[in-house]
């Protein structure tokens, strides 16, 4: 629900996870900065993805391509002509909306008002009209559903039109004659950096089909409706993998990657009922099959990841525009003909997941407000139950008091552990308050050094989720934590 969503946004700001960009100037629409703990969380998510996709798959390698690419890239990829969304303007409020967002919001409203079937029917009708590019039909659907602008309360709409979502800028010295020639785009997806390097990587890496190329990097889209925190940003990060395969084997590999990616999501400890697949009715300009993995956010089921069967669309177009062969020579023998497969342009299955949406998913899943009141006193806590491998800080070391040599022992524990994982030292406030602060940023383990530590070399370890405490030997701390974050 929306209260929970707002509570998470406030928590993120208050505890150093995510700030609005340039906040001292009142922020910049749909742009966010990651703070001290948010950046650790985000990095851990990227590392975990990279490990699962690259380190654990011998036939997948990574690259790091530039954000700027030759402008022809985006002609070949279809983004100059097709990367646009149908939008509509409200003439009274002079606000522009994405048509699908307006209708989705209406469907949500119907569902919340107990009219689930009507909402579903509306989305079905919208999908069909979008698939047919029926702009007049979309406008009628908006008017028929009496969608009014929240600001002006009226509904005087323009026609539905397409707007391109790519950001552009100019390169080098600007020529006065040919402005077009200087225009470069900020990439709206990382995938094209992989396609244009397909042969470089295949040849230098001696890669054999099937193989994949993975990449993590920034992408930019001039999103129109952008009011959903880090769900829809104008600058965001993607983790993409393009898997190159023999033409004809795409159905099998598409299913393979659907299964593999769902396994990855479940490995985050998120229950299966929080996920669903959503098959695309309207396919993007490059795809012959596509689906989303949706997660049940506090604002409803929404896309986190897309899995797309991109055929040979991208490589074929780059071959046409660049006049460079984008072919692979396959000397494996085709059993049906008894001859080698020979030369072909590979087909591609893509898995594309947003880093920021994954951060939001992990935060939504982890955030819990707990009432800990007893007969004697009222008490509560906010805890972020991150999987330990994703937690910004793994271990907090807390001396009970600021004297008697306890800080020194705590420092020695940190010195032994910090080369292996992120630790945190704190000596201010009561132990109870320090535990609460660690709960609020999702630290899975706290150890407290007390006077007994000096006698028997043990500390109290306190577990975030159960709040259980037990004594363990100082020299057992590091291994216990390493075991839990592996
Ligand atoms: P949507 O329909 O929500 O706009 P999309 O289908 O256009 O998303 P893709 O082009 O498939 O998204 O991009 C792959 C992934 O990149 C998405 O699943 C999402 O996680 C992420 N992503 C796309 N656009 C944004 C954005 N504006 N802000 C944050 N993440 C995004």
From TrEMBL:
GO molecular function: ATP binding; bis(5'-nucleosyl)-tetraphosphatase (asymmetrical) activity; glycine-tRNA ligase activity
A Pfam family of this chain: tRNA-synt_2b
Domain Aminoacyl-transfer RNA synthetases class-II family profile stretches: 116-399
Keywords assigned: Aminoacyl-tRNA synthetase, ATP-binding, Cytoplasm, Ligase, Nucleotide-binding, Protein biosynthesis
UniProt-listed InterPro entries: aa-tRNA-synt_IIb, aa-tRNA-synth_II, aa-tRNA-synth_II/BPL/LPL, Anticodon-bd, Anticodon-bd_dom_sf, Gly-tRNA_synthase/POLG2, GlyRS-like_core, tRNA-synt_gly
One GO CC annotation: cytoplasm
A Gene Ontology biological process term: diadenosine tetraphosphate biosynthetic process
CDD domains per UniProt: GlyRS-like_core, GlyRS_anticodon
Enzyme class: ligase
Family matches, as PANTHER family: DNA POLYMERASE SUBUNIT GAMMA-2, MITOCHONDRIAL, GLYCYL-TRNA SYNTHETASE/DNA POLYMERASE SUBUNIT GAMMA-2
Family: Belongs to the class-II aminoacyl-tRNA synthetase family.
Name assigned to this protein: glycine--tRNA ligase
